Amino acid sequence: xxxxxxxxxxxxxxxxxxxxxxxxxxxxxxxxxxxxxxxxxxxxxxxxxxxxxxxxxxxxxxxxxxxxxxxxxxxxxxxxxxxxxxxxxxxxxxxxxxxxxxxxxxxxxxxxxxxxxxxxxxxxxxxxxxxxxxxxxxxxxxxxxxxxxxxxxxxxxx
Length: 158
What we know:
By secondary structure, the protein is mainly β. The chain has one helix at 2-18, and strands at 28-34, 40-46, 49-56, 59-66, 73-79, 83-91, 94-101, 112-119, 122-126, 133-134.
Protein backbone atom coordinates (compact mmCIF):
# COMPACT_ATOMS: atom_id res chain seq x y z
CA UNK A 1 0.00 0.00 0.00
CA UNK A 2 2.89 2.36 0.80
CA UNK A 3 4.36 2.20 -2.73
CA UNK A 4 0.96 3.05 -4.27
CA UNK A 5 0.45 6.01 -1.91
CA UNK A 6 3.99 7.25 -2.60
CA UNK A 7 3.46 6.95 -6.36
CA UNK A 8 0.17 8.89 -6.19
CA UNK A 9 1.76 11.57 -4.01
CA UNK A 10 4.66 12.00 -6.47
CA UNK A 11 2.27 12.15 -9.43
CA UNK A 12 0.19 14.87 -7.75
CA UNK A 13 3.31 16.85 -6.85
CA UNK A 14 4.56 16.60 -10.45
CA UNK A 15 1.24 17.84 -11.85
CA UNK A 16 1.07 20.69 -9.33
CA UNK A 17 4.61 21.82 -10.13
CA UNK A 18 4.02 21.74 -13.89
CA UNK A 19 0.79 23.73 -13.87
CA UNK A 20 -2.36 22.77 -15.70
CA UNK A 21 -2.08 20.23 -18.48
CA UNK A 22 -2.61 21.62 -22.00
CA UNK A 23 -5.18 18.84 -22.54
CA UNK A 24 -7.40 20.54 -19.96
CA UNK A 25 -6.99 24.08 -21.35
CA UNK A 26 -10.17 25.85 -22.34
CA UNK A 27 -10.66 26.14 -26.13
CA UNK A 28 -10.46 29.71 -27.45
CA UNK A 29 -12.89 30.90 -30.13
CA UNK A 30 -10.66 32.41 -32.81
CA UNK A 31 -13.28 32.94 -35.53
CA UNK A 32 -17.04 33.45 -35.54
CA UNK A 33 -19.44 34.11 -38.39
CA UNK A 34 -23.21 34.63 -38.17
CA UNK A 35 -24.91 33.60 -41.39
CA UNK A 36 -28.43 34.07 -42.79
CA UNK A 37 -31.29 31.96 -41.41
CA UNK A 38 -29.81 31.89 -37.91
CA UNK A 39 -26.82 29.75 -38.86
CA UNK A 40 -23.27 30.27 -37.64
CA UNK A 41 -19.70 29.03 -38.03
CA UNK A 42 -17.07 29.04 -35.30
CA UNK A 43 -13.47 27.91 -35.15
CA UNK A 44 -11.91 27.16 -31.80
CA UNK A 45 -8.30 26.47 -30.95
CA UNK A 46 -7.20 24.27 -28.07
CA UNK A 47 -3.40 24.08 -28.18
CA UNK A 48 -2.61 22.55 -31.57
CA UNK A 49 -6.22 21.32 -32.15
CA UNK A 50 -8.54 23.42 -34.33
CA UNK A 51 -12.29 22.73 -34.53
CA UNK A 52 -14.70 24.01 -37.19
CA UNK A 53 -18.38 23.99 -36.22
CA UNK A 54 -21.45 24.86 -38.29
CA UNK A 55 -24.92 24.98 -36.83
CA UNK A 56 -27.70 27.01 -35.26
CA UNK A 57 -28.76 27.92 -31.73
CA UNK A 58 -30.44 24.49 -31.65
CA UNK A 59 -27.29 22.49 -32.29
CA UNK A 60 -24.24 21.76 -34.38
CA UNK A 61 -24.73 19.94 -37.68
CA UNK A 62 -21.07 19.72 -38.74
CA UNK A 63 -17.91 19.45 -36.66
CA UNK A 64 -14.41 18.96 -38.10
CA UNK A 65 -11.40 18.76 -35.82
CA UNK A 66 -7.85 18.80 -37.11
CA UNK A 67 -4.22 19.40 -36.30
CA UNK A 68 -0.87 19.05 -38.04
CA UNK A 69 -1.22 15.27 -38.24
CA UNK A 70 -4.85 14.71 -39.31
CA UNK A 71 -4.41 15.61 -43.02
CA UNK A 72 -7.72 17.54 -43.00
CA UNK A 73 -6.49 20.99 -41.93
CA UNK A 74 -4.37 23.42 -43.93
CA UNK A 75 -3.08 26.95 -43.28
CA UNK A 76 -2.42 29.66 -45.84
CA UNK A 77 -1.27 33.24 -45.54
CA UNK A 78 -0.93 35.77 -48.35
CA UNK A 79 -0.80 39.49 -48.88
CA UNK A 80 -3.37 41.57 -50.73
CA UNK A 81 -4.23 45.00 -49.32
CA UNK A 82 -3.05 43.51 -46.02
CA UNK A 83 -2.21 40.05 -44.72
CA UNK A 84 -4.86 37.39 -45.27
CA UNK A 85 -4.85 34.26 -43.15
CA UNK A 86 -7.06 31.28 -43.66
CA UNK A 87 -7.69 27.78 -42.42
CA UNK A 88 -9.11 25.11 -44.73
CA UNK A 89 -10.82 22.14 -43.14
CA UNK A 90 -11.66 19.17 -45.35
CA UNK A 91 -14.19 16.37 -45.07
CA UNK A 92 -14.63 14.06 -48.03
CA UNK A 93 -14.94 16.09 -51.25
CA UNK A 94 -15.77 19.27 -49.32
CA UNK A 95 -13.50 22.12 -48.17
CA UNK A 96 -14.58 24.64 -45.55
CA UNK A 97 -12.41 27.77 -45.65
CA UNK A 98 -12.48 30.47 -42.99
CA UNK A 99 -10.46 33.58 -43.76
CA UNK A 100 -9.61 36.97 -42.35
CA UNK A 101 -8.02 39.93 -44.12
CA UNK A 102 -6.89 42.88 -42.04
CA UNK A 103 -7.89 46.46 -42.92
CA UNK A 104 -5.45 48.86 -44.57
CA UNK A 105 -6.45 52.47 -43.80
CA UNK A 106 -3.61 53.79 -46.00
CA UNK A 107 -5.34 52.28 -49.02
CA UNK A 108 -8.87 52.86 -47.76
CA UNK A 109 -9.42 49.10 -47.64
CA UNK A 110 -11.70 47.62 -45.01
CA UNK A 111 -10.97 44.31 -43.38
CA UNK A 112 -12.83 41.28 -44.64
CA UNK A 113 -13.51 37.87 -43.20
CA UNK A 114 -15.79 35.06 -44.16
CA UNK A 115 -16.48 31.44 -44.97
CA UNK A 116 -16.32 29.60 -48.28
CA UNK A 117 -17.57 26.07 -48.88
CA UNK A 118 -16.36 24.14 -51.89
CA UNK A 119 -17.19 20.76 -53.38
CA UNK A 120 -14.03 19.79 -55.18
CA UNK A 121 -12.90 23.15 -56.59
CA UNK A 122 -16.40 24.54 -57.14
CA UNK A 123 -17.63 27.19 -54.69
CA UNK A 124 -21.08 26.20 -53.42
CA UNK A 125 -21.37 28.79 -50.64
CA UNK A 126 -19.65 32.10 -49.98
CA UNK A 127 -20.37 34.64 -47.25
CA UNK A 128 -19.58 37.81 -49.19
CA UNK A 129 -22.04 40.67 -49.05
CA UNK A 130 -24.12 42.07 -46.22
CA UNK A 131 -25.86 38.80 -45.42
CA UNK A 132 -23.33 37.80 -42.76
CA UNK A 133 -21.38 39.16 -39.84
CA UNK A 134 -17.96 37.58 -39.52
CA UNK A 135 -15.35 38.51 -36.97
CA UNK A 136 -11.70 38.87 -37.84
CA UNK A 137 -9.35 36.47 -36.09
CA UNK A 138 -9.77 37.01 -32.38
CA UNK A 139 -6.62 35.24 -31.29
CA UNK A 140 -5.15 33.29 -34.19
CA UNK A 141 -1.99 31.66 -32.94
CA UNK A 142 -0.54 29.89 -35.96
CA UNK A 143 3.15 29.35 -35.54
CA UNK A 144 5.83 26.88 -36.48
CA UNK A 145 4.99 25.01 -33.28
CA UNK A 146 1.58 24.18 -34.77
CA UNK A 147 3.34 22.92 -37.89
CA UNK A 148 0.12 22.96 -39.92
CA UNK A 149 0.52 21.90 -43.54
CA UNK A 150 0.73 24.95 -45.79
CA UNK A 151 -2.08 25.22 -48.30
CA UNK A 152 -1.63 25.95 -51.98
CA UNK A 153 -2.36 29.46 -53.37
CA UNK A 154 -5.11 27.96 -55.52
CA UNK A 155 -7.23 27.52 -52.38
CA UNK A 156 -7.13 31.23 -51.47
CA UNK A 157 -10.59 32.53 -50.57
CA UNK A 158 -9.66 36.04 -51.77
